[in-house]
């Protein structure tokens, strides 16, 4: 059934692409993605760690709030003035806020950036986490700091409980086939937030969704995944009012990078501009209540819009 879903999406995508760009139009006129708003995220055993101070990149080095990671690793902390002591069974580390030198089991180690304090939290270079004898990997494409296992769970294992689709049926009134394309009538919805990522479903890993812009200033949703092929998973926007808008990733905005596929979905597409409805012409991500992921799950899956 998912293959049928893909075939339908492929046909829609082909039509949308031909409608938007004539066959004779030069490829140089096609938009190009020039920026993506992707905050650094720390994952412990493939789940995002929440923190009141965000990790960041400083002078090319990745800095992370050490307490949130250390608590997962079971290490001990002791702060005295500007000196932080971190220790576990094998390792004792002394750090000084503002210094680029760590003392590890009595030996000085030069870090690639200074230890910093921000809003009462101490941020340290990834080297410090690595010194605690745990697997640490920086992924520059996903902007992920992987700590521990990288085994991404199946969606069903991490999905919150589903609820009735009844309050959302009004949005599907013009697209009723979306509620039956798994072969069964779908009557529930799973509402997720950004912390649900990454997850796997039917062999595809969805790592994260972010905003991006092209060289003409238009906005997109970037989906970082392993979703390849001609017909990738489509998205749909719920709202404003009682509207639902399907979105497809044009073939010219699909980029392979370091083993991943970066697919870009326009916030505003040609079908919006062709309509007389003012709500369509003034479409923006801030007007969207949910971003649906049409992946063929047993319920509808909708991300509560984190960009409103």
TrEMBL record:
Keywords: Signal. The keyword Translocase does not apply. Residues 45-143 form the Copper amine oxidase-like N-terminal domain. Residues 1-28 form the signal peptide. The keyword Nucleotide-binding does not apply. It comes from the Bacteria. Pfam families: Cu_amine_oxidN1 (PF07833). InterPro entries: Cu_amine_oxidase-like_N, Mao_N_sf. This is Copper amine oxidase N-terminal domain-containing protein. It comes from Paenibacillus aurantiacus.
């Amino acid at each position: 059934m998912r293959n049928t879903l893909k075939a339908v999406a492929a046909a829609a995508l082909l039509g949308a692409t031909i409608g938007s760009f004539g066959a004779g139009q030069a490829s140089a006129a096609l938009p190009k993605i020039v920026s993506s708003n992707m905050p650094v995220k720390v994952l412990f055993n493939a789940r995002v760690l929440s923190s009141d101070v965000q990790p960041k990149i400083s002078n090319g080095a990745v800095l992370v709030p050490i307490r949130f990671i250390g608590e997962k690793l079971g290490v001990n902390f002791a702060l005295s003035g500007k000196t932080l002591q971190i220790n576990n069974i094998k390792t004792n580390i002394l750090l000084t806020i503002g210094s680029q030198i760590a003392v590890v089991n009595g030996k000085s180690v030069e870090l690639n950036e200074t230890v910093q304090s921000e809003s009462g939290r101490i941020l340290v270079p990834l080297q410090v986490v690595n010194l605690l004898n745990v697997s640490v990997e920086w992924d520059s494409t996903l902007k992920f700091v992987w700590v521990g296992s990288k085994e991404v769970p199946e969606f069903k294992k991490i999905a919150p409980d589903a609820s009735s689709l009844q309050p959302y049926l009004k949005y599907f009134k013009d697209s009723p086939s979306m509620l039956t394309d798994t072969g069964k009538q779908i009557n529930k919805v799973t509402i997720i937030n950004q912390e649900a990522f990454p997850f796997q479903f039917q062999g595809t890993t969805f790592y994260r969704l972010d905003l991006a812009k092209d060289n003409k200033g238009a906005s997109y949703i970037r989906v970082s995944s392993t979703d390849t092929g001609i017909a990738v998973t489509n998205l749909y926007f719920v709202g404003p009012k009682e509207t639902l808008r399907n979105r497809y990733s044009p073939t010219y905005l699909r980029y392979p990078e370091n083993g991943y596929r970066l697919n870009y979905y326009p916030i505003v597409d040609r079908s919006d501009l062709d309509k007389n409805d003012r709500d369509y012409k003034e479409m923006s991500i801030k007007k969207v209540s949910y971003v649906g992921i049409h992946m063929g799950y047993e319920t509808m899956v909708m991300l509560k819009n984190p960009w409103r």
